[in-house]
Each structure stands twice: as structure tokens, then as C-alpha cells.
Design brief:
Layout (H helix, E strand, L loop, with lengths): L3 H34 L16 E6 L3 E7 L2 E4 L5 E2 L2 H12 L2 E5 L7 H4 L12 E6 L5 E11 L8 E6 L6 E6 L14 E3 L6 E8 L4 E5 L9 E2 L7 E2 L2 H8 L5 E2 L2 E4 L8 E10 L3 E9 L5 E9 L5 H14 L2 E4 L2 H4 L10 E2 L8
């Protein structure tokens, strides 16, 4: 029979073993997590970034097809209109930079909790992203689920992901932002021609009324209003500046092929912007019953323009002429200004 002294000694030994086991087990967890975080989810992708020529993004209700052609990324679902190159680059490098943090569930019944279920699931909230080379061979493919606030580094993201066809899901860290709709990938820049380049703007409204503003020289401080009545003054010179700057940082909300025909609706204005350097941009705006105003552009250079401006005009015309651009209505407000709204007429002298 074991005496009290032996029993006490055994208890001490047992406690030491349990504490040691717990310490070993707990110490393994951060080591495994740290080791994983030093890896990348797609080990071969970083060295093959230059091979990526196709991107597929598929969710339950949307599909986006991005293709690289002659150095430019195009959106298949938007008639081949250019994609935002910065967004494309961030997606590709984001995929390559994903680092596994820890394994999560392998039970398909639990996938919806992480948002990594197959797209064939009735209520799938996941999105599948694939990268391929010019020959169509897959370079990387991933089901992307929910995100969560990162631990420690607020500049990073943590996402739940799963490789298609594999049961194991993962928590990964990185910066992967996946826009699910084709229009979200549009390169929204149309033109960025600053007012300082503009010599004159000639606008014809739908009622036939005309407005022209101009500068004689680039160094002139203010634009003038053509046809200003004698003794009248421009009411607010900053409104003339807004007209001259209508093409500065001009962006689209949507786009459609021009197809060589006028868009449905009522033409509301035609504006011609002439630059001091010989660049000329024509803009025709049509007000549609649905969808707001759309604009068509034509660009050319005058004979006096130098070769650089002629090259710029040719490239802009080739890029813009095939398309109709939906433009925010507020950006067109300066061009719709009536001449009378710009003129401060002299008050008649009181009889006396």
C-alpha cells in the first residue's frame, strides 16, 4: 500500500508532467503560425507575374473577364473597354503576396460561416478568382470568402480562402480586394486637359444660342466673354474658368460602343475646345431619357501644332472616338451656362 510520502511525490511528478505538456503544446501553436506566415500561398506565382494575361472573377450573380492585349487590360463584359491598370496590378500582386496564417475547417457544412463555399451552393457568397497565362493555362485559382480585422498589423487584411477542389480552408493575410462587377474595373479617366492649355471654348446649345470664351495669350489672367455688350462686365470670372476647365480630370460613370451612330435622345450641346498648342477637342453631349447625359469626343491638331501635339491628338482620338461616355451631370453644368447669366449689365441712371 502506497504511503502518504510516496503519494505526494507522485502528485508532484504528475503535476510537472502536465505543466510541461501544456507548455509544449501551447508553444507549438505560435511557432506553427509564425512559420506559416513566412510562407506564401502560391509559391511559384511571384516569379511568374509577367506571365499573367488573363483574369477571371466569378461570383453567384456576376462574371468579370480581364484580358491583357498589347500591353493594355480589357474588360470582356464591357465590350473590351480598358480596365483600370492599377486595380489589375493590385489584384495580381495581391494574389501573389497572400501568406497563410492558419488552417481552418475542412468540413463543407461549415464553409458558409467563412464564405468559402462552392459557387454551386444555392446561397454562395464566395467569389472565385483565377489567373492564367496567354495560352490559357492556370497559374493560380482561389475561392475568396469573408474578411476579418487583422491581428496586430492594421494595414493588412485577413481573409478566409480555399483552393477549388480541396477540402481544407485557410485564414490568409495580405491585400486582396476583388471587385465583383465589370463596371467596377473600368478605367474611369477620359481626359485631363487643364484650363491653362485652353485658348478658347465655343459652345452651341440645343436652342442654337452660342457662348464663346477666350484668352489672347496664355499669360492672360482671365478669360474674356465674346460679344460682351458695351459697358457690361462679366458677372463672375471664375465661371469662365470653370468652362475652360471642363476637360480637366474628366471621368466616366459608364461607357458603351459608339457604333458609328448618334445615341438615342436629344442633343443638348456641342463644345469645341481649342488649345494654345493647336490641340482641338470637340465634345457632343446627348441627354438620354434614361441614364443621364452621354458625350462623344473627336480630337485633332491644327496645322500649327508641333509633332508632339499631333501625336497626342491622334492617340486621344483613336482612344475616345469609338465610345460614348456617361458623364456625371454636374461636370456639364458649366457648359450649359446661358450667356445672360454671365453678364452684369450697367444699371440705367436715375432720372434727375
Amino acid at each position: 500500500m502506497m504511503n502518504a510520502k510516496k503519494l505526494g511525490a507522485l502528485a508532484v511528478v504528475t503535476a510537472v508532467v502536465i505543466v510541461a505538456a501544456v507548455f509544449i503544446e501551447e508553444s507549438r501553436k505560435p511557432v506553427e503560425r509564425t512559420t506559416l506566415s513566412q510562407q506564401v500561398f502560391f509559391p511559384d506565382l511571384m516569379s511568374r507575374l509577367g506571365d499573367v494575361a488573363g483574369i477571371g472573377i466569378v461570383s453567384k450573380d456576376n462574371r468579370v473577364t480581364l484580358s491583357e492585349k498589347a500591353g493594355r487590360w480589357e474588360i470582356g463584359e464591357m465590350h473590351g473597354y480598358p480596365a483600370d491598370p492599377d486595380k489589375v496590378r493590385r489584384l495580381i500582386t495581391g494574389m501573389a503576396g497572400l501568406a497563410p496564417v492558419e488552417k481552418k475547417t475542412s468540413n463543407p457544412e461549415l464553409y458558409p460561416r467563412l464564405g468559402v463555399e462552392d459557387l454551386s451552393s444555392p446561397d454562395a457568397g464566395s467569389v472565385e478568382v483565377s489567373l492564367s497565362n496567354r495560352g490559357g493555362a492556370l497559374l493560380a485559382r482561389l475561392i475568396v470568402g469573408d474578411s476579418r480585422p487583422p491581428r496586430g498589423d492594421a494595414s493588412a487584411m485577413e481573409l478566409y480562402v480555399r483552393r477549388p477542389g480541396e477540402a481544407q480552408s485557410w485564414l490568409v493575410r495580405g491585400d486582396l480586394r476583388v471587385a465583383r462587377t465589370p463596371d467596377a474595373w473600368l478605367d474611369r479617366r477620359i481626359l485631363d486637359i487643364q484650363a491653362r492649355r485652353i485658348r478658347q471654348v465655343d459652345i452651341t446649345q440645343k436652342d442654337g444660342s452660342r457662348l464663346r470664351i477666350f484668352k489672347e495669350k496664355p499669360q492672360d489672367k482671365a478669360y474674356q466673354l465674346a460679344g460682351l455688350p458695351v459697358n457690361a462686365e462679366v458677372k463672375a470670372s471664375h465661371r469662365l474658368d470653370a468652362i475652360a476647365g471642363a476637360l480637366a480630370d474628366l471621368t466616366l460613370t459608364n461607357v458603351a460602343p459608339a457604333k458609328g451612330e448618334s445615341p438615342a435622345g436629344e442633343q443638348s450641346l456641342h463644345a469645341v475646345f481649342d488649345g494654345f498648342d493647336g490641340l482641338q477637342v470637340s465634345m457632343t453631349v446627348t441627354d438620354q431619357e434614361e441614364g443621364g447625359p452621354v458625350a462623344a469626343f473627336a480630337v485633332k491638331a491644327t496645322d500649327e501644332a508641333d509633332e508632339a501635339v499631333k501625336k497626342e491628338a491622334g492617340e486621344l482620338d483613336a482612344r475616345l472616338k469609338p465610345w460614348l461616355f456617361a458623364i456625371p451631370a454636374y461636370r456639364l453644368e458649366p457648359l450649359r451656362t446661358a450667356p445672360d447669366d454671365l453678364v452684369e449689365k450697367p444699371q440705367p441712371k436715375a432720372a434727375g
